[in-house]
Amino acid sequence: MTTRAAALPRSRPRSSGGTPVVGTVTRGTTNPNRLRRMDRWIAAVHGAELRRAADPVAVDLGYGAAPWTAVELLRRLRAAAPRTRVVGVEIEPARVAAALPYAEEGLVFRHGGFEVPVTGRPTLIRAANVLRQYDEDEVAAVWERLCARLAPATARSGGGLLVEGTCDEIGRRHVWVALGPEGPRTVTFATRLGSLDRPSDLAERLPKALIHRNVPGEPVHAFLRDFDRAWAAAAPYASYGARQRWIRAVRDLTADWPVRDGGARWRQGEVTVAWEALAPRG
Question: pTM for this one?
């Protein structure tokens, strides 16, 4: 994994299973339907991997003060891969206790952190709005630890997927990084197009690895600058709606940036770019 070394967040008291819990308590902010854009992208992009897995396990890491996101993740992933099981993991024991009444077939809740207290290797780990509260120099070590817990790649499989990112309180704007066992793969920008003035509005939701790099000289700054220019050039398409303007702007971006998806995802108000093109310099 080609990320710089950093110290892991401090360990907390041991879980009921005796394993040291790694991480710190977050604010726990959550809302129903907040992570719908991320979930739908995961189901579309990673659904085949979940269907191929012998025991597809998805982890909702740091689900917060209420278990809504874990419950919704189960519903959305099972629509794409019916055998999927979801494990909600929280570092605050009181939040685990509050979630237990929502457990059901295929959905359990456990106390833990970045050690990911599940048996075996998960096919998916989703960590939304978790690293936002950590320091930038802690991100690489957390990524490395979580990627090491993913199902490994094989001749027939790309392995598990870690999706780590940030969104606003009601899920209108979201940016996430997708990582495999080998490390970062892509960055996805997703938005409710009606809420957008210009693409660079998404800068405030960049994940911790990128948010402090939105400055001149850094690739993510250049990408958002070019995206704004493409958006402005696509202004005539606004008469057909914000979706058509977004699609045209993204299509223009493909001339200079390694966009990894196509029209079906663009229509959802998304665009996915290769991580190497946006990775911080140095």
Answer: 0.92
